[in-house]
């Protein structure tokens, strides 16, 4: 098929991950960044042109999908501009920093008849899809519970611009929660109720990374967030995300069933295998059920294929909005002391991977 033209807005740290895997379904046309030097470096390194403005990129008829890799605080405004310009848009997570932002993006796309896609796409990895197949086959019986842990000391130890992770719309749940929540919805279906608790370990952080080492940045959002989720089919469990934890021994994602347990690989990665233990049996490695070797960007490439073939895409705006609503629900529940009932999520059947 004719590759789908992609224009990139935002050439920061995450761009290299999208460029690590090549997909024939799409072709990068151009890029823009508010920092011209950063855009120029991306252009030179990856072999596509840089343009002087976002408006120039949006006006290019060769650009069919806008890949939105901007900071979370402007995800929604960039996606809105793309949709209103008649472009499909695929955004880094989260879809927005509030339900209102996410809903506005989806409405604008609906009004213009364009698509919204959104990271994470790691639920399409071979590990996550294998785990989903095992649950469908009854390998662990009926799922009854889960644990999900993302515990680390913070982004100031490695990220060149860590302050964005400590502003509203940042924090560990907005930043890393989408990987785990999307995986849980993939594996366990529709959430029925969510509860949340939050805390902040310190009012400021000291940057340790690269040239900015020694600078202090304010912490304006909770840096440790815990959520409790009840799924409609009965499974319950906890997700804990933290930028204030050292040396965690906890595995990233575990699903417990009436007949066994699944150890699922890190939802933030595309590598790692699934392990299964049934009742009195020892742990065993499960061979992948889908093709291996894919990486970040598979959701964008699958969206490109879906556009050409006229079918729904998997890493959809509706899925991202469901996850955004769950995240906001943790904070709302913490403030009110009342459970939040999430909006409907896509059926897990719609979240099966199709090859690209």
Fold and architecture overview:
The protein has 2 domains: about 5-120, NAD(P)-binding Rossmann-like Domain (Rossmann fold, 3-Layer(aba) Sandwich); about 120-290 and about 325-350, Dihydrodipicolinate Reductase, domain 2 (2-Layer Sandwich), CATH 3.30.360.10. The N and C termini lie close together (about 10 Å). Helices cover about 30% and strands about 25% of the residues. With about 350 residues, the chain is of the alpha/beta class. The chain has 9 helices and 16 strands. An 8-stranded mixed β-sheet has the order 8-11-12-7-13-14-15-16. The protein has a 6-stranded parallel β-sheet with strand order 3-2-1-4-5-6, with helices on both faces. Strand 5 (about 90), helix 5 and strand 6 (about 115-120) form a beta-alpha-beta unit.
Which structural traits does this protein have?
356 residues; alpha/beta; Rossmann fold; Dihydrodipicolinate Reductase, domain 2; eight-stranded mixed beta sheet; six-stranded parallel beta sheet
Detail the topology: elements first, then pairings:
Elements lengths: L3 E6 L5 H5 L6 E7 L3 H11 L2 E2 L3 H6 L5 E4 L6 H10 L3 E4 L7 H14 L3 E3 L7 H11 L6 E9 L19 H18 L2 E9 L4 E3 L9 E3 L5 E8 L4 E7 L10 E5 L2 E5 L9 E5 L5 E3 L11 H12 L7 H20 L20
Parallel strand pairs: 1-2, 1-4, 2-3, 4-5, 5-6, 7-12
Antiparallel strand pairs: 7-13, 8-11, 9-10, 11-12, 13-14, 14-15, 15-16
Helix pairs in contact: 4-5, 5-9, 7-9
Low-pLDDT runs: none
CATH class of the largest domain: Alpha Beta
* Series of H and E elements: EHEHEHEHEHEHEHEEEEEEEEEHH
% residues in beta strands? 15-25%
Measure the end-to-end span: 11 Å
CATH architecture of the largest domain: 2-Layer Sandwich
CATH superfamily of the largest domain: Dihydrodipicolinate Reductase, domain 2
The 3D shape can be described as globular
- Whole-number average pLDDT? 95
User: Radius of gyration, rounded?
Assistant: 20 Å
H/I helix tally: 9
Instruction: Please describe the biggest sheet, giving its number of strands, its sense, and whether it closes into a barrel.
Output: 8 strands, mixed
Binned, the helix content reads 25-40%
CATH names the topology of the largest domain as Dihydrodipicolinate Reductase, domain 2
Number of strands: 16
**Helix- and strand-based class?**
alpha/beta
Count of folded domains: 2
Strand order of the largest sheet: 8-11-12-7-13-14-15-16
């Amino acid at each position: 098929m004719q590759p789908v033209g992609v224009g990139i807005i935002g050439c920061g740290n995450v761009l290299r991950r999208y460029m690590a895997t090549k997909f024939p379904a799409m072709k990068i046309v151009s890029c823009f960044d508010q920092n011209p030097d950063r855009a120029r470096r991306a252009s030179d390194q990856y072999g596509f042109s840089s343009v002087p403005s976002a408006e120039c990129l949006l006006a290019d008829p060769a650009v069919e999908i806008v890949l939105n890799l901007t900071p979370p605080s402007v995800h929604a405004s960039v996606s809105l501009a793309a949709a209103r310009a008649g472009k499909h848009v695929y955004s880094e997570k989260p879809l927005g920093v509030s339900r209102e932002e996410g809903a506005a993006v989806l409405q604008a796309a609906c009004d213009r008849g364009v698509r919204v896609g959104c990271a994470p796409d790691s639920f399409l990895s071979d590990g996550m899809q294998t785990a989903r197949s095992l649950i469908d086959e009854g390998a662990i019986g009926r799922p009854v519970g889960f644990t999900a842990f993302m515990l680390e000391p913070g982004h100031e130890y490695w990220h060149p611009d860590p302050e964005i992770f400590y502003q509203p719309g940042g924090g560990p749940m907005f930043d890393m929660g989408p990987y785990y929540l999307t995986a849980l919805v993939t594996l366990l279906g529709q959430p029925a109720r969510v509860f949340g608790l939050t805390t902040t370990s310190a009012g400021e952080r000291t940057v340790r990374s690269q040239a900015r080492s020694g600078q202090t940045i304010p912490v304006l959002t909770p840096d440790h967030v815990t959520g409790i989720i009840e799924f409609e089919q009965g499974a319950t469990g906890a997700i804990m995300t933290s930028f204030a934890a050292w040396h965690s021994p906890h595995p990233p994602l575990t699903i417990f069933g009436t007949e066994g347990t699944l150890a699922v690989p890190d939802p933030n990665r595309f590598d790692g295998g699934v392990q299964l233990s049934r009742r009195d049996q020892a742990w065993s490695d499960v061979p992948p059920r889908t093709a291996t070797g894919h990486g970040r960007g598979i959701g964008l490439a699958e969206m490109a294929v879906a556009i050409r073939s006229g079918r729904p895409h998997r890493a959809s705006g509706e899925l991202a909005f469901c996850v955004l609503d769950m995240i906001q629900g943790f904070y709302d529940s913490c403030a009110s002391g009342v459970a939040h009932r999430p909006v409907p999520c896509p059926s897990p059947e719609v979240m099966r991977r199709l090859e690209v």
